[in-house]
């Protein structure tokens, strides 16, 4: 940032950017709208370019505002964390923590972790960013990442790992329809669609079954899971995640997923956030939850 910018100006900018309105930001900040508009105009003059595109209803970020927002938002979070760190211990765990995770982990693991956090820290908000794309922790796109492959980047710390061997699961009705002594070739398989063919599960299925063709495929994990619950076929799932009540209708199938894939779930955080009370609270809950489910495999074969 350019020399001379001060935190108070940045705080005003972040408020307008988040609310998309000068009037709404002024109300939130307890300022008059003319005062806020003047302060932002002075900041824009200092930068030499506009931060906002003013409209009759609200405002949008101008190119300079888009460039400034990530760093400004991080400054706002650091200021909040500094205040929290100086508070009494019982008041420190508050704010928002954003966790990025693949859709399956977000659906089955993070929702259970959120329940435990809510009971212990009601002032803490957990935001799950469910995506098949890697978000950049270094750029502040998320605070914590759950990943099925460890990412080696400067500044990233792997603080934990949940081990859970993948297995084939299906509905009880589907399990009952399998022939005695069923093998992998007997399974109607549900997996990611062709444009996600680079995902580990798809690669392993193609390795185990040359010429493999799925019975059902989707680019959405929830759709795959719905097909599995409906009885369309078998799906590779982490056994440890079967503790989620939503998956109680699925059973482990009597066919081995003969893969070297160990089922590792890596917990990563950027070093600049490690040690903050709200971050450590979530990491502790993830560690506790992971230890509790690591050996869980779900209901046995039907």
What would your notes on this structure say?
One of its GO terms (biological process) is DNA-templated transcription. It comes from Shewanella amazonensis (strain ATCC BAA-1098 / SB2B). Keywords: DNA-binding, Transcription, Transcription regulation. Helix content is 39%, strand content 20%. Helix 1 crosses helix 2, helix 2 packs across helix 3 and helix 5 crosses helix 9. The mean pLDDT is 85. It is elongated, with a radius of gyration of 24 Å. A five-stranded mixed beta sheet has the order 4-3-5-12-6, with helices on one face. A five-stranded mixed beta sheet has the order 9-8-10-7-11. The protein has nine helices and twelve strands. The chain folds into three domains: 79 residues, Winged helix-like DNA-binding domain superfamily/Winged helix DNA-binding domain (Arc Repressor Mutant, subunit A, Orthogonal Bundle), CATH 1.10.10; 107 residues, Periplasmic binding protein-like II (D-Maltodextrin-Binding Protein, domain 2), CATH 3.40.190; 87 residues, D-Maltodextrin-Binding Protein, domain 2, CATH 3.40.190. With 302 residues, it is α/β, with parallel strands linked by helices. Helix 7 links the parallel strand 8 and strand 9.
